[in-house]
Amino acid sequence: MNKGIIILGSSRSNGDTHKVVSYLKDITGFEIVDLNKKDIGHFDYDFKNKHDDFNFLFKGIVQNYETIVFATPVYWYTMSGMMKTFLDRISDFLYEEKDYGRRLRGKNMAMLSCSNDNDRPAEFNLPFSRSATYLGMNYLGDIHAWVKAKELPKEVKEKIDAFALKIK
Questions:
Q1: pTM of whole model > 0.90?
Q2: How many CB atoms lie within 10 A of CB 60?
């Protein structure tokens, strides 16, 4: 089985996106990292944040996982700010400690988004798919999910089931 990790980038650790991610975890066995519980500063060219949680987290990811699933709510038609910060910080390993950045080559990336309805903008996946290409990763695809009355609708569960088969 493919060893994978889900990077949860939501302002609410136990919100709707977590509900979707938990369902995916149950199917895949992938581990979850909650960015909301990490201290990760913004990217800067002087690497002032090199002692925050990002370096240790990123090194662990590239050393231990073959598939990375980015899970984010849809905030203002795009990914969450903390997810964007995480993606930006990968640049740390494109400028310094390049050997770790190169370890992304050949790994798999996928993306899961979540909102209140089946209304994700069509181009929402572009930062992920293009980043995968730039980093030499295999983009396995993406899925959009939603929660109704605090439950995953049957249609969403079926989509996640099919998605899990693609990324395992």
A1: yes
A2: 12
